[in-house]
Design brief:
The structure is a single chain. The chain is an all-alpha fold. The termini are far apart. The protein is built from 11 helices and no strands. The protein has one domain (2-249). α7 (136-153) packs antiparallel against α8 and α8 (157-166) packs across α11 (231-249).
């Protein structure tokens, strides 16, 4: 195993950062959504923007498997099926134009989408707390934005958080629905990363396999944390991390 690790050519610092990021990715898939917001930028710094997307994707899928298994019974399939077609279209758009969009422009666009959506959600809360924004255009915009952002940088978390919070579903349903949405979306992206962007290789898969114990530990750590969070605290935490994520994109 030691020879295999050394053959990948990563420094001790790279491995240390990667293990921490693997723990955070696992925690995020268990419901501690903000944890992934810290992991994705660090992985991009260590491995580069586009290459890191292919390295992180299998890590996300490993965590998705455990999240789906644990939270499957809480999934709101109606919401998943409404979002998935738009997300797939967003992924295909990103695959085609991703190389032409500067990082700064992409980040600014995503920040605006998230902030406008957050303002809309807060406005709905003030105007009529019982109202659910079940508009086709709302689902379309956030579905496309989620698909585009997950392909470009595995960064659809804030977009999906915004949508599911707007639907006012309970904590456990939120996590179960997000788990299945991301499992389907991430599996859809795999062949695109292998054959089109060529960011998933044998070397990256070996690295992901080595990271899997840390990912699994992160998942079960996240499950334990989520059990302690009341519904209101969970919602406020998600709103806060979503707004912070948008601000950081600027």
């Amino acid at each position: 195993m030691l020879e295999l690790i050394q053959s990948l050519g990563f420094s001790a610092t790279d491995w240390g950062i990667s293990i921490i990021c693997a723990l955070l990715i696992g925690m995020s898939k268990a419901g501690v959504t903000g944890a992934q917001l810290m992991a994705i930028p660090f992985m991009a710094v260590v491995f580069g923007g586009k290459p890191s997307t292919g390295i992180v994707l299998p890590m996300l899928i490993i965590a998705d498997v455990f999240a789906v298994k644990h939270y499957n019974q809480f999934t709101n399939w109606k919401l998943v099926l409404k979002l998935i077609p738009w997300a797939f279209v967003g992924i295909l758009i990103a695959m085609v134009v991703g190389n032409e969009v500067p990082d700064t422009a992409f980040k600014s666009i995503m920040a605006v989408v998230i902030l406008v959506g957050a303002i809309f959600m807060i406005w709905q809360d003030i105007k009529n707390p019982a109202t659910i924004p079940d508009y086709w255009w709302f689902t379309m915009v956030l579905g496309l934005a989620g698909g585009f952002s997950t392909m470009i940088g595995n960064a659809a978390g804030p977009v999906l958080t915004l949508y599911l919070l707007s639907m006012r579903i309970p904590k456990m349903n939120f996590i179960g629905t997000a788990a299945w949405f991301f499992m389907l979306v991430n599996l859809f992206k795999v062949p695109l990363h292998i054959f089109v962007w060529e960011t998933i290789t044998t070397k990256t898969l070996i690295f992901d396999l080595i990271m899997s114990p840390a990912i699994i530990i992160g998942v079960f750590t996240g499950i334990s944390i989520i059990k302690l969070l009341p519904e209101k605290v969970f919602r406020l935490l998600l709103i806060g991390t979503t707004v912070v994520a948008a601000a950081l994109l600027f």
